[in-house]
Design goal:
Elements lengths: L4 H4 L4 H4 L12 H12 L8 E5 L6 H12 L2 E6 L6 H13 L8 E6 L10 H12 L4 E5 L8 H5 L1 E5 L5 H14 L3 E2 L1 H11 L3 H15 L1 E2 L1 H6 L7 H12 L3 H7 L7 H15 L3 H23 L6 H13 L16 H27 L3 H14 L3 H11 L3 H8 L2
Helix pairs in contact: 3-4, 5-6, 8-9, 9-10, 12-13, 12-16, 13-16, 14-15, 14-16, 15-16, 17-18
This protein binds adenosine-5'-triphosphate and magnesium ion (MG).
Length: 409
């Protein structure tokens, strides 16, 4: 059997299809030009540093690498959120910004994720602004949140450039290109909806496409639905991303403002997803503590019919949760639909479906409807095996909808 290169290539597609040249980079060519020109003419710039900020997964880190490549510069890279202490940061960076490279090539210094530096180490950011004063080479910093706590000393010394989210059409065309290269069967509308639900986050889109490709070998609209509810619940996902990724109080607080969900639902969304994002014990404990306080206010508000308490509920579950972490978490997190709401939402339409299935099961097994209902979870497990599933479906004469219902039970 011929094993193709692609089959044996297990890299994540975000790596495999990381653009190799500036031309392949999707997004505002103006911004790309701006950054390129700033580095090119660094000797004559007003600032020695550039702060490139924008939402996660839109290519900030990638762009800096491409710019270095394009201009033939050697890149020196530190990830500020990985640097544990001021001292460690100082020693490596100070050398880097002052000493010529061994190869004699010019350097570009990348300080990635400056806004993610530990907030415990308060001096970190002012340390960086001091290092900017000493640099002999252009410094580019990246951040999700240029306005996070303590960022003003850095902002003041930098040319602040925002990278905009990748336009849905650009995400879409990139996904199609990759699908073609992978020889993947896809419905155009399905790829489009992956692009749409990514909300400008190219990395999220690539991850979604790859996960469907690997799981099912094709991309259809039905399968996209399986990914979750990000399309219809776009606002909520965006709010979650902001709350979890920022440490800035007002950013987090504003994130929940425009969300078209009631406070109870929003509460469930946040509670469900905190453990997905906050992996450190203390962060999780603190965030849950804040949520429990929000819950107390929520309860009092209802029992006392005192709706003025609502503002505390909102502030606690947005800003309160966002400042519960010591530092921001990097990378992509797939948020999920709250299981509690899923159960509630199911109730009406699905009660009927459940009853229909139970009737069918009950008839075949000669049991009462309620006993049959109790058997649905077991059916769900049995039907994970493909040949058993076929037999069961045939025996019980199940419809597509009913099969789906059992599968998701
Ligand atoms: N504008 C883009 N054009 C093409 N590919 C992109 C673009 N943005 C992101 N990608 C893809 O997504 C991956 C992740 O992008 P990158 O790490 O540069 O994002 P980022 O903005 O630095 O995110 P974070 O804020 O989380 O650090 C890249 O390796 C690339 O595959
Ligand atoms: Mg990055």
């Amino acid at each position: 059997m011929k094993i193709s290169y692609q089959m044996s290539d297990t890299r994540p597609w975000t790596e495999k299809y990381r653009p190799g040249t500036v031309k392949e980079f999707r997004g505002s060519s103006k911004t790309v030009e701006k950054v390129l020109n700033w580095v090119k003419n660094w000797d004559n710039q007003k600032t020695d540093a550039l702060l490139l900020h924008g939402e996660p997964g839109i290519g900030k880190t990638t762009l800096v690498g491409l710019v270095a490549e394009e201009l033939g510069l050697e890149i020196f890279e530190t990830n500020a959120s990985d640097v544990r202490t001021k001292k460690a940061l100082q020693s490596s960076l100070e050398q880097a910004v002052q000493q010529r490279s061994l190869t004699g090539r010019k350097k570009l210094i990348l300080i990635d994720e400056v806004d993610g530096m530990s907030s415990r180490d308060r001096g970190g950011k002012s340390q960086i602004s001091k290092i900017i004063n000493k640099t002999k080479f252009p410094i580019i910093m990246t951040a999700n949140d240029a306005y996070a706590n303590g960022m003003q000393s850095i902002r003041r010394k930098s040319n602040v450039v925002q990278l905009k989210k990748v336009h849905t059409n650009s995400v879409n065309s990139r996904l199609k290109e990759i699908a073609e290269k992978e020889g993947l069967e896809y419905e155009k509308s399905a790829v489009k909806s992956i692009a749409r639900r990514a909300g400008g986050d190219m990395r999220a889109a690539l991850n979604d496409l790859q996960s469907l490709a690997e799981k099912h070998g094709e991309v259809t609209s039905d399968l996209v639905k399986e990914l979750g509810y990000r399309d219809t619940e776009k606002d909520v996902f965006q709010a979650l991303k902001l709350i979890f990724k920022t440490t800035n109080i007002s950013t987090a607080k504003n994130a929940v403002d425009g969300v078209d969900e009631n406070y109870d639902t929003l509460f469930e969304w946040i509670r469900e997803n905190i453990p997905k994002e906050y992996k450190k014990k203390n962060d999780l404990a603190e965030a849950m503590d804040v949520m429990s306080k929000a819950d107390v206010f929520k309860g009092r508000m209802v029992t006392r019919q005192n709706w003025s308490l609502l503002k505390y509920v909102y502030v606690l579950m947005s800003a309160g949760v966002s400042v519960s972490k010591e530092e921001k978490y990097r990378g992509f997190t797939r948020y999920s639909y709250p299981s509690k709401i899923k159960k509630m939402g199911r109730s009406k339409a699905s009660r009927k479906k459940r009853k229909d299935i139970s009737l069918k099961v009950g008839k075949k097994l000669h049991t009462s409807v309620s006993t049959a209902t109790d058997l649905i979870p077991f059916l769900s497990i049995l039907m994970e095996k493909e040949d058993w599933k076929e037999n069961i479906v045939e025996h019980l004469d199940l419809t597509e909808d009913e099969i789906k219902f059992i599968k998701n039970f």
